[in-house]
Amino acid sequence: MKSTSRLLAAVKSERFLTPGNPTGLTGLLTHPAPRSQLLYLYTSTLAKLAQLPSHSVYRQSAEAITKSRLAVVENTKPPGYEEWAERAQKKVNESPEVFGKDADVRKIFLQASLTREKDRLEVEWDGDKDVPAALEGTRMGEERQLNQRKIAKATSKSLELENWENEPPLEASQVAEMEEKIGGGLIEEVIQVAEGENMLVDTILEARSWEELDEKPPKGQWEYFSRNRHTPETQSPPQGKN
């Protein structure tokens, strides 16, 4: 069931959802760019899943769901998308040092972050502000030069992206259509699930959980949980009353 705010938006015939507005679910605000976010998460998850063995049941099921949802997102394009893609591709081609050579704007995902001024009443003070301790002693010349190069590189990238034009927003009706096709609740909830899946794959890759255990379990360890343990394999049919 959709949240009250989404229903009210439909009643008011608003064409676009307002980023940062409440969704009706506590702590969950309207996402500014759900399509771009999901494209990034699903593409990233599929790339990570490809590192798992093809016989992994988890990989097979996660890939099927992710590809199905990715297709829904890819086929839902906002008004003016092709015109935007043409302008964005031109900017990408002008900055190969930032985006890489032969970068395709449809396969890289950039979005200006949504900033919202916080009310001082929303900020709960929990004591003194944590300040990380500074390194003792004079930094070596080589270390100072390395830090300067990092700062210069970051500044260069931020300058290149200052005038980046975000992908056009989806219409409210398009968002509702995506939510219906995916069937995972509000699009913001779908994003949360996609973020969790993306992190889960990292955990599985790190643990290499598809490999054999280093220490084999004792014989009969799992027999207690097997089916029909407390009943005979075949039961005698009920006897009729004489």
Would you mind describing this structure in some detail?
The protein is mainly α and 242 residues long. Helix content is 46%, strand content 0%. The chain contains 8 helices and no strands. The chain has helices at residues 4-11, 34-49, 57-74, 81-94, 96-99, 141-160, 172-182, 187-207. It is extended. Mean pLDDT is 78; it is low at 112-116 and 154-159.
Number of helices, where a helix is a run of at least 4 consecutive DSSP H or I residues: 8
Report the β-strand fraction as a percent range: under 5%
Structural class of the helices, strands and pairings? Answer: mainly alpha
Helix content estimate: 40-55%
Mean pLDDT: 78
CA(first)-CA(last) distance: 57 Å
Uncertain runs? 112-116, 154-159
Would you count the extended β strands for me? 0
Using only C-alpha atoms, the radius of gyration works out to 26 Å
- How would you characterize the largest beta sheet? none
Question: Given the C-alpha coordinates, what overall shape results?
Answer: extended
Instruction: Give the SSE string.
Output: HHHHHHHH
Distinctive features:
242 residues; mainly alpha; extended; 8 helices
Overview in brief:
By secondary structure, the protein is mainly α.
SSE map:
Elements: H1 4-11, H2 34-49, H3 57-74, H4 81-94, H5 96-99, H6 141-160, H7 172-182, H8 187-207
Helix pairs in contact: 2-3, 2-8
